[in-house]
Structures are given as C-alpha cells and as structure tokens.
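Exercise 7. Given the encoded structure of a 641-residue chain, write a plausible sequence.
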C-alpha cells in the first residue's frame, strides 16, 4: 500500500500553544477597521480588480497586467489566473524573468467605499492548475462560495461578472465543453459572447442562471470573442482554505448537521504550521457553514458503496481509491456490532465522493478546528476534558501510593529485574517477583476498569454519539474522541496525496512522582503503542504472537491509566504507522523471551472496530529492521456544507 511509516515521519504531535493563540485572538478579536463586516456576498462584490506590475532586476523595463480576481474567503484569500501573475518581461525582443512584482487589489473598484491593498502570492502554491492563490493580509471583504456542477454538465444561461466601473456589469456568455482536458488545470469549458457586448476581463467570475459561481475566465481572446474557463473541480490543487460544494443541497435524510457561526477563529499552532497561506497569522475568519453532527458510520458508507455502479465496485483501481481499508470481504464487509461505528480507513477520493453524492464536501482544517474547539480555539478546553485529566491523575497517584506501600511491606523484592526501578512489573523470574507482578497487575486492572467505565473507554472507537459528553462548543459530537478525521489536504502536497487527518490526543505526563511509570514502548507516532483494539500486522522478521499480545495489551492498559498532562492536536498524513515493539537496545531484551519468565499481561480486551479480524499471525513480505508492528490508524471523516 505504500503507506507505512508516513504518519510517524510527518506527524506534528506538538502541544497546543495556548497562550500564543489566545493572545493572537485578542489582538484580532474586532472586525478589521474600515472594511465590511460581512463574510459572504454576491459575485458582483467578490470580483475585484487586479493590477500586476512586473519589473526587471535593474528597474529599467516593466510590464503591467490588469484583470480580475475572486475573493474566496473573507480574510483576504483571492483566486486569480496564473497568466496575470506571470513574471515574464520582454526586453529587446527577448523574454526574461522579472525580479520584482507588485500586486495591487482594488476591492469595490470604481465604486464608493473602494479599498486598495497589496497582495502576495502564497508560497508553496499549486503547479499547472491555471490559478494562483493570493493573500491580502489585513483585508476583510465579502467572499463567494465556489460551487461544483455535476460532472459532464455545461451550465446554461451563464454570465461573466466583471470588476471595475461605478456599477458592476455582467456579460452574457455561451458555454460549451472544452475540446480536451489532457493536462491538470486544462479548461473545462469555452465561452463566447455576442458582438454587441463588451469583452469581459481575465479573472472574471462565471455565474450560472441560478446565481452560483461555477468558474473563472482564465484566458481571453478578444478578437475571437472567446475565453477559456476553469471550474472549481481542481480547487483543492490551489488551496484548502475553502472547498467547493455541489450545487445540490443535502436533504434531511443525509444526516443531521450543526450550524456553525462564522467569524474570527483562533488557529491551533499545529494547523498554522501546516498552512503556509496563513502567512504567520494566529487567526482565521470563516464564513458560516454547517458540519455533520457525527462521523460517517460503516452503515452509511455501505449504503453509498452499494449505490455505486457494479462495474466500478469490481474495478481494482476504483476499489483502491474508494473502498475502506478496514472492511472485510464483499459478502460481509463488517459485523453488525460495528455498523454504527465510524467507518475507518476510507481513502481520500472515497470520502470526497461520499460527500459530493450527499451534496456536501470535506471540511477545511480551519472549519474542523472551529467546530471542535469553538472560536477561542485551544485556549478554552471543554470542561469534561479537564475533569478527565483530573480523574486520570488521581487514579495514577492512587496506584503509585499503593505500589509504594507494597514495596515498603516487601523490602526483599528485587527491583533490578524491571526495566526501571518503579515500573509496573511485567516480566518476572523469582516467586516473590511473580507474586508482586500479579498484585501489580490486579491493581492496575482495577484502576483501568474504573476509568474505562466512567469515561466510556476514551481510547476506543464507539458508536457515533455514544459519548454524550464529547460535544464541541458548536454542538458537533465525537470531535475529540472516536478516531482521527479527514479534512481537505493542503495544495502543496504532491498529486498522489492521500489524506490529511486531524486528531486530538492526550499528552503523557513527562515528570512523575515516585511510583510506577509506563514503559518506554516506542512508536513512530511519538507515543505509546495504539490500544490493542486497533488492527495491526507484524513484519516478516518480527516478534512472536506472545510478544505482540504482551506488548499490545500492556500498552492498552498503560494508555488508559498512565498520567496525562493536557489535550493536544496531531496532524497526520497517512493511514498506517509502525511501532518498535521491543526495546532491543536494552540489555537482556530480545524478540523471544528467555526461559523461566512469566509474561505480565494487560487486560487482554479485544474489540472489533474494523471489518477485518486482528491478524496476529499474518506476515509482511517487506523486510524491516528489527521487530515491528504496523498499525492501521483509526481514521474516519465527517462532511460539511
């Protein structure tokens, strides 16, 4: 599958910079002075004038290009034809690349209240899309919502919405399908207009008869009165600050959605680090939107899958891009017990296809974080999270005190047999140590079961909405627990990008008082191994089945009982991670346990969260360095509109 180890290398499991983000929100809490407060508006408002001056390095020669751009998000994000941003300057009949470029945007050009601002192209932008993404830092102007027409459809009764002049003007245009679409960013349609009408400008918006903005004029031939038009099919290759939605509205049967109020939103530092378009800003201003109350379940995705053409469902290429990685056979993709659990491991094209079929789209990273945390971002964590942290810490401290008392009552216990002097005993050699290990095991199980029952197994995937307390400030459910979730990926990812997944987790406490400590069970994700209920496979030269059970069940226990410091956000890029299951660098540890050792086991709780059975004895054909486990990470998705 080519997905191993990707998440671990790129995962940003840094702690949320609460103070910094909160300060940024305070600095920008009020609307930008002198700018309109509306987040969305008509195409006539959102089409703005563009003036680009490109100059040679010595300043002797310059060229000025004029046209239009489209405001696609209210806090200064614009989409413009790349042709307007060309750095080519003709010097003495020879084409050269200019050294300097000035981009001026005229908001409300030629009308009362016109504002001018300088823009910059966003670093790491798209390649061969025909568009460029611009950002006017500090601007706030009503944006349009890019809309998608059904594949193969040519909108009728369209008009080009033009910028400039005291009154916005429109030019009726006739569209037809473009001759070829062999390259990324190739025109979707071609347009012509009547001889009596003035020509539109490059960058003008294309508006359908229903008032939907469905594309941009990317090239114009004034002599032939024709233009090339790109629709928003490839908008994701230009930016993920917004995502285009189908024209058809979702119905009530498509599942409940939560209305999220627009406005200024603090951006977690982990998201800001992955979004170069923010240009260092700590906040984003979002238009109002709706997001699914719950993640998409196995049952819901199966209904969509069975509605697809049978020929597509049989195609290996289509299955690879649309069928969940975690499902079993076609006859029984998953058992009834997990029908209402989030569908896990849906490839990005499959999630996008499901969303479009239901009149929805994938949320942007900004929208997902706003729905999960509210406008204040990580500065204000939900009350239940703080309560859970207190309960975890109290359970651990109680466990520590019990172990301290046990060690005082048994001074002859040889602590040197354990990986660290006060770790939970897990491998024992002497009768006294075996007895201590059993006592420690039973105490830890009691603490674990109490927490799991009170908090409904925080580290396991449960049916959508099963944890009533996991509700965001905006009203969406299961946004902190219950698996990571897909969002619209950044444009600078390569063309074969699979996903970007966001997930909240709990950061293990780094400093502890005297008492048992979690073992250092390494993982490429930077933390403990995933709980045992996750699907995994072992490498060809990996550990034995007993080793896997021992380490995974121990990790399951300690991941649910060990002390945690705070809530954190992780950004991941793939569905699979690897984990080194045995600390082979330590003396006395090897893949096969020495004779005479009793394996210290955790609770051994196995839950099916995927359609596959857990393949403890399956073997990977790819060799690896040392004992390895490969985990399919629990990644689901929800839709927005």
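Solution.
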């Amino acid at each position: 599958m080519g997905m191993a180890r990707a998440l671990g290398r790129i995962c940003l499991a840094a702690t949320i910079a609460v103070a910094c983000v909160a300060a940024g929100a305070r600095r920008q809490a009020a609307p930008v002075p002198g700018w309109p407060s509306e987040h969305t508006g008509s195409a006539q408002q959102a089409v703005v004038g563009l003036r680009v001056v490109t100059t040679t390095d010595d300043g002797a020669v310059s060229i000025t290009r004029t046209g239009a751009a489209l405001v696609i998000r209210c806090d200064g994000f614009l989409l413009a034809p790349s042709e307007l941003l060309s750095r080519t300057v003709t010097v003495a009949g020879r084409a050269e690349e200019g050294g300097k470029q000035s981009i001026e945007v005229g908001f409300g050009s030629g009308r009362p209240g016109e504002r001018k601002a300088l823009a910059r192209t966003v670093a790491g932008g798209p390649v061969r899309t025909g568009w460029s993404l611009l950002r006017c830092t500090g601007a706030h102007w009503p944006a349009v919502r890019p809309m998608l027409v059904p594949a193969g459809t040519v909108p009728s009764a369209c008009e080009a919405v033009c910028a400039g002049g005291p009154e916005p003007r429109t030019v009726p245009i006739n569209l037809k399908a473009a001759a070829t679409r062999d390259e990324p960013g190739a025109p979707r349609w071609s347009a012509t207009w009547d001889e009596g009408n003035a020509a539109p400008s490059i960058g003008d918006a294309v508006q359908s008869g229903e008032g939907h903005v469905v594309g941009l004029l990317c090239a114009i031939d004034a002599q032939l009165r024709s233009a090339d038009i790109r629709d928003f099919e490839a908008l994701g290759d230009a930016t993920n600050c917004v995502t285009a939605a189908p024209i058809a509205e979702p119905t009530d049967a498509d599942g409940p959605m939560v209305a999220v109020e627009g406005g200024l939103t603090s951006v977690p530092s982990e998201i800001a680090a992955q979004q170069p378009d923010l240009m260092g800003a700590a906040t984003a201003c979002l238009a109002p939107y709706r997001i699914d109350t719950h993640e998409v379940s196995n049952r819901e995705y199966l209904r969509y899958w069975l509605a697809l053409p049978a020929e597509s469902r049989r195609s290996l290429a289509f299955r690879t891009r649309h069928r969940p990685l975690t499902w079993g056979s076609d006859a029984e993709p998953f058992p009834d017990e997990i029908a209402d659990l989030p569908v896990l491991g849906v490839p990005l094209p499959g999630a996008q296809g499901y969303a479009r079929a239901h009149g929805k789209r994938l949320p942007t990273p900004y929208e997902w974080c706003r729905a999960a945390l509210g406008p204040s971002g990580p500065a204000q964590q939900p009350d239940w999270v703080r309560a859970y942290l207190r309960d975890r810490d109290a359970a651990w401290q109680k466990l520590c005190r019990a172990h301290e008392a046990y060690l005082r009552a048994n001074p002859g216990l040889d602590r040197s047999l354990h990986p660290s002097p006060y770790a939970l005993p897990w491998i024992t050699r002497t009768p006294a140590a075996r007895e201590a290990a059993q006592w420690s095991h039973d105490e830890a199980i009691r603490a674990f079961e109490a927490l799991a029952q009170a908090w409904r197994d925080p580290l396991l995937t449960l049916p959508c909405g099963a944890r009533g307390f996991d509700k965001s400030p905006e009203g969406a459910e299961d946004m902190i627990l219950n698996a990571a979730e897909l969002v619209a990926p950044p444009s600078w990812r390569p063309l074969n990008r699979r996903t970007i997944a966001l997930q909240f987790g709990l950061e293990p406490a780094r400093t502890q008082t005297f008492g048992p400590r979690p073992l250092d069970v390494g993982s490429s994700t930077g933390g403990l191994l995933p709980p045992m209920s996750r699907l995994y496979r072992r490498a060809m030269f990996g550990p034995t089945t007993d080793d896997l059970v021992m380490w995974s069940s121990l990790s399951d226990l300690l991941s649910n009982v060990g002390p945690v410091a705070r809530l954190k956000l992780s950004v991941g890029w793939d569905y699979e991670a690897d984990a080194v299951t045995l600390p082979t660098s330590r003396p006395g540890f090897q893949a096969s346990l020495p004779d005479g050792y009793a394996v210290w086991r955790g609770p051994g709780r196995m839950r099916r969260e995927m359609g596959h059975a857990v393949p403890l004895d399956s073997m990977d054909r790819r060799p690896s360095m040392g004992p390895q486990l490969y985990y399919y990470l629990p990644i689901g998705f929800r839709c927005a509109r």
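Remark. The longest strand covers residues 62-73. Students should compare their own answers with the one above.
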